[in-house]
Write a sequence for this structure.
C-alpha cells in the first residue's frame, strides 16, 4: 500500500511517501498507526499521539475505525489548517 | 449550477471571478465573496508556506461545494485555494457564491469557509522575519465548532 | 476604523474597493464583499429606477456602519449604494468588510445588508420591457425579520 | 415646516416637497398625517393607510408617536426597498 505523509508528520518521518507491505491484521487506520509506530523512532515521534492524526483513504477522509484494506493509497496528516 | 474549484500557486483576481459567474446571468441578485489574506503577525512573519495534498485538495473542496449546492439555491460557486509560499498581505483563498437572494449566498459562503478550514487538506507553516523556521500553524477548536453548527441545519 | 459610505449614480468596482481597504494593512485576514445586482425578472424588466433621499441616505448608512463597527472588531467598512436608472445585470449595492477573522467580517456584512434593506431611504420602481411603467417594488416581511434577528445579539 | 415626499407618496401628492405652516396641535407624525389628509384627495390617497408610512425628522427615522415640533424638515415615505 502507498502511504503518504504531510506537514509535520512528513517532517518527522523524513519522507513524503513510501510503499509498504502491510501485515494482514492491519485493517483500519488505528491498526496502521499502531503498526507504523513499531518501525522506528521517527514513526514513534510522528504518531506519539495517534488520536490527533487525520487519515484519508484514496483521497477521502476516513475515521480511525473504518476499513482501509481496499485502499490504493492512505494519507496520514495533522489536523488541517487551510482556508 | 456552475461549480469551479482551482488549486494553484498563482494569485487570483476576485473581480475576474465575480465577472465569470455573473456575466450574462440575469437571475443573480446577490454575490458574496470571501477572501482570506495572510496576516503579517505584527511584522514577525516573513512567509507563510502552504503544503497541500494534490488531488485530494481539489476533490475534497469539490465535495464541500457540491454539498453547499444541495443545501442552498445557488447559481454558482467558485473556490480558489493557493499553495506554496505566500507573502504577508497576499491572498490565500477565495470563495464566491451567487444566488437570486442574499441569504443563500451569505450562508453558503460561510459554510464553504467553515468546511475548507476543517476538511480541505492544506497545512500552514510559518517562516519568521528573523530567518528561522517557525512552527506549523495549529488547528483551532473554534474552527471545529464553526463546522459543527451546520450539522443540524 | 476606516468607514467609507458613498451614494452615487455611477457604477463601482468591487476589486478597487477591496484594494483600498486592504493595501498596506497587514492585520487583515478576512475580506467579505456583498454585491447586489439588478435581476432581469426573466426578461420582463427594462430598467430599475432607484429613488433616494439625498443627505439622509448617506447619514443613515453611516449610522448603520458605525453600529456594525461597535459590534464587531472590524478594520474597515465600505458601503456604496447607487441611485438612478439601473439596467438588468448591473450593480446596485456593494458592502465590503475587513477584519482579522472571518466570523466578524461575515456577520458585519450580513448585518449591514439587513439594515440597508429596512432603514436606508431608497425605493425601487420597475420599468417594464413592454414599455410600461411597472410598480414600486414592495418591501418584504422577510427583510424585516432579517433585521429583527440582530436585536438580541 | 419643510415636508418631503418620496416614491409613491410623492407621486400621489404630485410634488416632491412643500413648505407648510402647521397648526399648533400637530406635535407628532400621527398628528401630521391626520392633518395632511384634510388637505385634499391627493393627500387622502397618499396617506389612506397611515400606519404603513415611514417618517424621518431631520433625516433620522422617527416613530409615529415621537415629537417632531423642533424638526426643520420632515419626510414621509413608503417602506424602503434599497439594498
Amino acid at each position: 500500500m502507498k502511504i503518504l505523509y504531510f506537514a509535520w508528520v512528513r517532517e518527522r518521518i523524513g519522507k513524503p511517501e513510501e510503499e509498504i507491505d502491510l501485515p494482514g491484521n492491519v485493517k483500519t487506520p488505528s491498526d496502521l498507526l499502531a503498526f507504523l509506530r513499531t518501525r522506528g523512532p521517527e514513526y514513534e515521534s510522528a504518531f506519539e499521539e495517534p488520536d490527533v492524526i487525520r487519515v484519508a483513504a484514496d483521497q477521502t477522509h476516513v475515521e480511525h475505525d473504518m476499513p482501509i484494506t481496499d485502499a490504493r493509497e492512505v494519507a496520514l496528516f495533522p489536523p488541517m489548517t487551510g482556508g | 449550477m456552475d461549480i469551479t474549484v482551482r488549486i494553484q500557486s498563482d494569485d487570483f483576481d476576485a473581480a475576474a471571478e465575480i465577472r465569470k459567474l455573473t456575466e450574462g446571468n440575469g437571475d443573480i441578485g446577490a454575490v458574496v465573496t470571501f477572501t482570506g489574506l495572510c496576516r503579517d503577525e505584527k511584522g514577525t512573519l516573513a512567509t507563510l508556506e502552504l503544503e497541500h495534498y494534490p488531488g485530494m485538495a481539489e476533490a475534497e473542496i469539490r465535495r464541500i461545494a457540491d454539498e453547499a449546492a444541495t443545501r442552498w439555491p445557488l447559481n454558482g460557486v467558485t473556490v480558489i485555494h493557493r499553495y506554496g509560499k505566500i507573502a504577508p498581505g497576499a491572498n490565500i483563498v477565495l470563495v464566491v457564491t451567487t444566488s437570486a437572494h442574499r441569504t443563500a449566498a451569505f450562508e453558503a459562503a460561510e459554510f464553504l469557509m467553515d468546511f475548507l478550514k476543517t476538511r480541505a487538506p492544506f497545512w500552514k507553516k510559518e517562516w519568521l522575519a528573523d530567518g528561522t523556521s517557525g512552527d506549523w500553524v495549529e488547528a483551532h477548536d473554534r474552527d471545529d465548532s464553526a463546522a459543527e453548527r451546520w450539522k443540524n441545519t
